[in-house]
What does this fold into?
Amino acid sequence: MKIFCVGRNYAAHAKELGNAAPTAPVIFMKPATALLKEKYFFLPEFSNNIHYETEVVLKIGKNGKAIQPQFAYRYISEISVGIDFTARDLQDDLKEKGLPWEIAKAFDNSAVVGEFLNAKEYNLQNLNFHLLINGEQKQTGNTGNTIFDFNFIIHYISQYFTLQHGDLIYTGTPEGVGKINMGDHLEGFLENKKMFDIEIK
Ligand code: ZN
It folds into this structure.
């Protein structure tokens, strides 16, 4: 199982981190060990600035390579909402040096994903999602605001990597990312349905 993530896929978020809107999707990966299996997340010692990034997550339902955009929807079996936890202090340092982001993005438990819903029952181009921290709305997004839509992302990724049944794609975060603190309670929603509920320890 592979986890793909799309960086800078919402223009307002690219801007808040001082990045230009990309002309092609920015893709990075997390290993299977990045998947959070518990209901809590322990702040790692290597960072003082772990950020939440709330994202719609796609689950791939069948294997495919070089998938054309018009057929891409057939490969999305389920959808959810998750968090791409990011060690922003490490990432800023790596970005400045022009180095790969892995340790800032792909560390253990850095990928939260909620329960999965049948993708066929939703309009994937118009999904509302949001994050509550301690009951307060911290991030809200709509998939209609992505720079690259899900069909193009699948087309793009599958030119380089064979997509396999069970792979996950984190489709990018809207603006409003920020730091998590010990004791925070994070709840993610897709179309007002609660998808995950975790605590920061
Ligand atoms: Zn992200």
The chain has a mean pLDDT of 97. The pocket of zinc ion is lined by residues 5, 7, 53, 55, 84, 170, 172-173 (CB under 6 Å). The domain at 3-200 is CATH 3.90.850.10 (Fumarylacetoacetate hydrolase; domain 2). The first helix runs from residue 11 to 16.
